[in-house]
Structure formats: C-alpha cells, structure tokens
Specification:
The protein is α+β, with helices and mostly antiparallel strands. It has one domain (18-405): Creatine Kinase, Chain A, domain 2. The chain contains 16 helices and twelve strands. The chain has helices spanning 37-45, 82-98, 127-137, 142-145, 158-172, 177-180, 196-202, 223-238, 277-295, 302-306, 310-323, 332-337, 347-361, 366-378, 381-387, 395-411; strands at residues 18-27, 51-54, 57-61, 67-72, 102-105, 149-155, 185-186, 189-190, 257-260, 265-272, 328-329, 345-346.
Amino acid sequence: MSVTINQKRPLHLFEGFGVELEYAIVRQDSLDIYPIADKVLEHQAGKIVNEVALNGLAWSNELVLHVIELKTNGPVTELVNLGTEFQKQVSDINSILSTFEACLMPGAMHPWMNPLQSVELWPHEYNPIYEAYNRIFNCSGHGWSNLQSTHLNLPFYGDDEFAKLHAALRIVLPLIPAMAASSPIADAQRKPFLNYRMEAYRTNSLRIPSITGLIVPEAIFTRDDYQSHILDKMYRDISPYDTDEILQEEWLNSRGLMPRWDRNAIEVRVMDIQEFPGADLAILEWIVALTKAFVNEVWSSHDEQKNWGESELYPILLATIEEGERAVIEDRRFLKMFGMNRSSMKAGEICPAAFQRLKEIEPFSAESDAHLDLIFREGTLANRILNSLPKSFNRRELQNTYHQLCNSLQLGKAFIP
C-alpha cells in the first residue's frame, strides 16, 4: 500500500503524490441529489466537522452539501495500490449512506439536477468563504454546483523544479480530457461536449476573467513572476467585490494547473471523476508517466516545452473538451513534442501511442495497464455512457445507465455498456 509521507524535508519531483476524488451523494431510488455530506461526516466523527482522517485518507466537505471528497491525508509515496484503499472507503461511505437510503454517484456531472433550484451550500465552518463565492459569482449553476473532479498534486522544490514541472504539465494538460471525459450529459440532455464539466468550469468566473485565464496557464516559470503576473492581478481584480479580503488567497486561482506555494505542489484540475477509483488511478498513472517523460526530455527539451503560449495550447484543449479522444489535432509542432512526425492525429491516437512508449521506460501497474487498454479500446467514460443510451433517451433510460454507474462504483468495476 502507498505510505503517507511524514514531511520532515521538502519533496522533490515525483517523490510524492496527492489525490482527491469528488462524488455526488444521491438517493438510492431516484438518484436525485441528496444534500447530506455533513451527516456522513458527523456519523464518522461523532460531530459535524469539515474533515475526518481514516487509514491514510481523509473525507471532507466541498462547496455544496451533496458532494463529498475523498483524498490522501497528505502526500503518499506512490500511486500503485492507492485505488484499493480508496475503493474500501467508498464502500464505507456507501454503508453509512445506506442508512439514509442514499449512495455515491460517479461521473463528473449529475445528469439531471437543476442547479438553479436544488443546491445547498455547505452551511458549517468555512461557510463565509462559500457565501463570498456565491455573492460574487452566484454558485447556482453547473459551473459551480454540478462539478465532480479528480485532482492530482505533484511536488516541486524551488524555481528550477517548478519550471520543469509547470512546463511539462502545460503540454500534457490539453490531452487529459481525451482520456478522462465523463460528463456528456446535463439537464437530462446530451450536451455538445464530452467534457461538459470543463466547458462549464472554464466559463464560471467570467465576471473576473483573470481567475481562470484560459485554463491552460501562462508560460510563467518562477514564483516571483507568478505572484506578480497572476496572483496579484487576481487579487486586484476581485478586491472591489471582496472588500473583506476573504477570497484573496492562492486557492482563488482556477486555472487547470494551480501552483500551491503553501504546499510546494502543482494541482492538476482538468480530470473528470471516473466510474471507480481504480479507473482514476490508472489515468493518473498515465498523466504522471507522461509528465515525467517531458521532465526527463524524452521527446522534447525544456526550452521547447517552455516556448508554448497559452493561446497556442488553448485550442487543443477546447477540441478535447468537446470531442474527447475523437478530437483531431492538426498542430504539427504539438505532435512533434511527443516524438510524432505527423501533420494530423486524433487525440485518441496520440494517447495510446504515448502509452506504449511510456511502458518501455517504466512499467505501469497491472490494474492500471488493463484499465488504460480498456479506455483505448472502448473509449472514454463519456463515450461509454453515450453508447449505453439510445440516440433519443428518456429519464428512465438515463436513470438505468446511472444506476449501473453507481453499481460500478460500489463494486469497483469498469463500466462497459
């Protein structure tokens, strides 16, 4: 099992990993959202708390009361076997929820909730932060209240390591939806995006555009430059709306890659939650291996990686948000970054080709290897969800698919229609 690291010294590149998984809480019968995250935490801790630690993991609240997060309780030494511990605790939470006739639902968006009518914010400790977000941005909407994602935290030490990690992750980021999209449905309708969560997320802070930027972060590679060009600008822009300075912290940053200077890590926020923890960990292994290849200059130099503006990477990300693995990438220079001398490739061709090369450098765990092969063969979870439904589907058919997804989560099995 992965061991939680007692941080007596700074962690360097790839010496530790932090993982966060978010799930919706729903009623067992109707699968409607059920805002009882506080009751789950109270059941486990004996009182209402924001977080409770268990066997190297932790359960915690989120912005809305129908979402609960499972996460590593600090960085762990490796990703291998971490999915097994997450799976055990998913079952533990479901056991508690069963007493309320509720369960956890996977997938990055609830397929039919109305976020304009049925959302309750976390009302306990830290509520002033959530109320400030709600006052400024109106958290009634998909971009705030209907988002479940997987986050990966990767450590760095000093500007040199930050520069290498940030440059590498900026190249990897646009391909992540081609592996991890799981949100093709909202408002009980098929959306024109396989990753509708990211489409909603990238537009949720339009009132203050500097908070999200273009999701792909700017080509900035030192802490001082990041503070002056990104963080200070955000704080200035929000200050007229946030006179009490409640939100003027580094976590206000909503780019797809968030440097967390308080923990010397970069948080990757572009991945939709999958159907069971082992699937999330498989994709995270792929992301880490690909990032490590760029840090080690396997296909391209650090200077080449740094020489990409966010406006050049942004169209590639938009394509994978919309079409997932079927997105066609026609940027020869981008393909060359992966050692591919082609003028055009689908994202769903780049990802498995990179996977085969990565396996020659360092083997993946057997479980992750198998699930990644399933994704390459059967498609992203978003496409598997759509393949389980008729072209025109009704609420009953949609409920049936999501009951199967809830069952996949409880059993720790891949969803294959």
